[in-house]
From TrEMBL:
Name the record gives this protein: ABC-2 type transport system ATP-binding protein
Presence of keyword Translocase: yes
Cellular localization per UniProt: Cell membrane
Organism: Asanoa ishikariensis
Xref: PANTHER family: ABC TRANSPORTER ATP-BINDING PROTEIN, DOXORUBICIN RESISTANCE ATP-BINDING PROTEIN DRRA
A Gene Ontology molecular function term of the record: ATP hydrolysis activity
Length: 320
């Protein structure tokens, strides 16, 4: 069952087409990552799906309800967490959640019970009586997530939920998202941190210039860059060209060079054979290295490759 769908969604602002026929299908109980450069149309798509903006053309459903014809029912079945926490710093964590409960027309007793349940669910029970101004960044974002779930909506939209957080706080938010999905919540996640999508998302959609240019699992999208890669960090920058030529001979592919980090990287097919050949050739050539790494491509590399391709051509959508 699909919790979120979009078919041929278009949105124009005057002569500018922010969305140019976007299709989307998100299974219930999954995390779907939405990636794209600034201005790609991510925010426009999320605003349409959350009924904050009407599409020019096309259709979309959320939790089984049409966003154009049934906006009230859509809003009753979603939660939305923006880039900035929406909680009151003067109030305590519990008071914030009780306030949101009353705004959603829960009775006083029901709002208090829901607040207590959410504080426990998000690991904030021991700090529920403290003012939010004393919370860490990760605690505030977890409280913000809790506030969006007062009515236990089946679909949650997260718009860059960990922007500005330190690594520990980001990890706390990731754990909270995983717990939500384990409980059956469907999550649409937009983020600038590709590591976040790699760790959380079951499927990824990449959009650019208002259209989908790739969709698939993080693993499948990374596989488009040739599976495994070898990175060599040379001890002396002067050896970078010779190392690139060596890797080109071994792999038959054109390596990428990064002078700032004295690194040469190239895609490989037979990972162990290529690694063995590279280490042997480096030793035979006398090139001193600081590191040799065999790894999978990162989503950052996939993202840069896909958006660079889309910027320079009318490449067809990639499905993986």
């Amino acid at each position: 069952m699909e919790a979120v769908t979009a078919h041929a969604l278009r949105r124009r602002f005057g002569s500018v087409e922010a969305l140019a026929g976007v299709d989307l299908a998100i299974p219930a109980g999954s995390v779907h990552g939405l990636l794209g450069p600034n201005g790609a149309g991510k925010t426009t798509l999320v605003r349409i799906l959350t009924t904050l903006l009407r599409a020019t053309d096309g259709t979309a459903t959320v939790a089984g309800f049409d966003v154009r014809r049934e906006p009230d029912r859509v809003r009753a079945h979603i939660g939305l967490v923006g880039q900035h926490a929406a909680v009151d710093e003067i109030l305590s964590g519990r008071q914030n959640l009780e306030m949101f409960g009353r705004l959603y027309h829960l009775g006083r007793v029901a709002a208090r019970a829901r607040a207590d349940a959410l504080l426990a669910e998000f690991g904030l029970a021991d700090t529920g009586t403290r003012a939010v101004s004393t919370y860490s960044g990760g605690m505030r974002r977890r409280l913000d997530l809790a506030a969006s779930l007062i009515t236990a909506p089946p679909v949650l939209f997260l718009d860059e939920p960990t922007t500005g957080l330190d690594p520990r706080s980001r990890g706390e938010v990731w754990d909270a998202v995983r717990a939500l999905v384990a409980g059956g919540t469907t999550v649409l996640l937009t983020t600038q941190y590709l590591e976040e999508v790699d760790r959380l998302a079951d499927q990824v959609t990449v959009i650019d210039h208002g259209r989908v240019i790739a969709t698939g699992t993080p693993s499948a999208l990374k596989g488009q860059l040739g599976g495994d890669r070898i990175d060599v960090v040379v001890a002396d920058l002067v050896d970078l060209p010779a190392t690139a030529a060596l890797l080109a001979r071994i792999t038959g592919d054109t390596p990428d060079t990064d002078e700032d980090h004295r690194r040469v990287g190239v895609a490989v097919t037979d990972r162990m054979a290529a690694l063995t050949a590279t280490v042997r050739a480096l030793a035979d050539s006398g090139i001193a290295v600081d590191d040799v790494t065999l790894r999978r491509p990162t989503l950052d590399e996939v993202f840069l490759h896909l958006t660079a391709t889309d910027s320079n051509s009318d490449a067809e959508k990639v499905t993986a």
